[in-house]
């Protein structure tokens, strides 16, 4: 018995471990590939947008063309140069986008989402969760419309919001992430297609969880969604996004922008289960997930909480951040980022303290397996006005095997002497001893590894809505397959 | 107590760790219902034997045979050996941060039941069995809410091993220096756990350094291991002799 147990990536990992890799055949309405003023105008026309929005798009496009050769290179990720002219910027799987009710939704589309585990039909819909289902560039269905309407909550595709609530959109779009913010945000501002819009009126506690389910289906199509959430004074909303994509040999680009605005005494809880196709075991294919997410605690006593479980994507580049502008406002960031095989992740957060007595908490758990690399990059910035600001940061990395890497890069900038900051960081390994101990109790190697990793993530999962905590845990299991053995 | 059914048979076992040979033509047979004690100085290979029986992949078997209830063990993964009824109480129980005791114990039991063709226990049934076992080894409810061995004192870790022994109720319990580092009260709890477990339908291999535990656990056989093999076997009186004379008189032979 000479089976020295070297815990390393095992080559059995099959591509079909990614259960969401199947493809749907629709007759899509596709724009030609490439990026130009004409394409931007076409998108704007398809969405029947007002002139101010088209102008904003074109302004963004011009800025992007100016900076075309200045892709950000500071992140700890490696990938070949993206040919932005080889991407399709608009694809609609159906010629009937934005249906008024579920009766108008293409039955094939309902079937497709059902297969993804997101039934949209009235009788089967997820209990207590209103879902906006987005495939490629358009929203195909939104559930629970009646209940939301009764509560006065607006939850609709952003393209619909542009038509119905133009003042709200115009007031807040780009107010947290300006079009000039960064390379990918500028690109998104020019070509964004769909995404969700949420407005919760003053004093309203949203009666159901709101969820957007994103799906990239068409080949060579980028997804550039734009999400805008506004929680008015004293309101509360919990929002969840989930994402999948089919197995493709080429890389797909996903460059989203998410903006959150919490007014006085309002709270937004934003959870993400990111499960884009990670590429196969040799690192071929997968989604480039280059996303800008930022929230603004605009009012006093407001709170924004990001929870993310990132298991997918070939490359993840995202830093969900909070601008703590209102006095006593609270920002939170809870993250589990798991990379296996050849995946790369450079993710973290920025907490910008402006108001007095503002508090932020950052708990980031990075798990690396196979030959994957993950980096936590976080910034805590205390401005001179932020008297008595507090931050607690904890970054833990867990390594599985000896070919992967984990890095922690904290930036701290303090301009007010009353600030209190704490930073803790650990790096540990799933040890042979832990695996053997668990196996000796009758538990298989894969299950032992999963149990240990799940234990490592526990503090984060409890931040998720209950059903999604279970799903997150399942995602982890699937993503870990083949990580030991 | 012996009913002459062989539970464990080790024949001419040679084994090494990190390229150093530790076990040298080691032989031992244990019958159902017997309690054996393996004693010996540091570095004699006692813990190596315990780890090899449980299938720790850090230890390499160079030659020899191990039969457990009529099946060869050497080609079996650690979890399969566990499911067949072999239990190792660890010398240094491992911490599993974030993994709840309850979840760990339930998974362990369910996994072994599944291997043996039984349905998993309902939460209710499991809870009542667990509570019963916890009471036997004087373990509180709060203890069960903690993470596996995380922040446990040395004594708590050892008691946790005895709790698992009681819960899993294996065919063969190997206790690797479970008595070391215990104060007298903890030693009594651990010893009682072993004595309560022991029955005509199972066997115990107690690996220890000290004669002390034998005041509470009554072995049928005492073996002295020096330099990778058993040099002398006897009954309980051998342990007392060792207490007086040390190991030197045996190694000089």
How is the secondary structure organized here?
The complex is a heterodimer of chains A (485) and B (253).
Chain A: E1 29-30, H1 37-46, H2 51-66, E2 91-92, H3 107-115, E3 129-135, E4 138-142, H4 145-151, E5 154-157, H5 158-164, H6 166-172, H7 183-191, E6 196-200, E7 209-215, E8 226-231, E9 236-244, E10 251-254, E11 257-262, E12 267-274, E13 286-297, E14 303-310, E15 315-318, E16 321-324, E17 330-339, E18 344-353, E19 359-368, E20 373-382, E21 390-399, E22 405-414, E23 420-429, H8 432-439, H9 445-461, H10 466-480
Parallel strand pairs in A: 3-7, 6-8, 7-9, 8-11, 9-12, 10-13, 11-13, 12-14, 13-15, 13-16, 14-17, 15-18, 16-18, 17-19, 18-20, 19-21, 20-22, 21-23
Antiparallel strand pairs in A: 1-2, 3-4, 5-6
Helix pairs in contact in A: 1-2, 2-7, 5-6, 8-9, 9-10
Chain B: E1 6-17, E2 20-31, E3 35-39, H1 46-54, E4 59-68, E5 71-72, H2 78-84, E6 86-89, H3 101-115, H4 123-136, H5 141-144, H6 154-168, E7 172-176, H7 184-197, E8 203-208, E9 221-226, E10 229-234, H8 236-245, H9 248-251
Parallel strand pairs in B: 3-8, 3-9, 6-7, 7-8
Antiparallel strand pairs in B: 1-2, 1-4, 4-5, 9-10
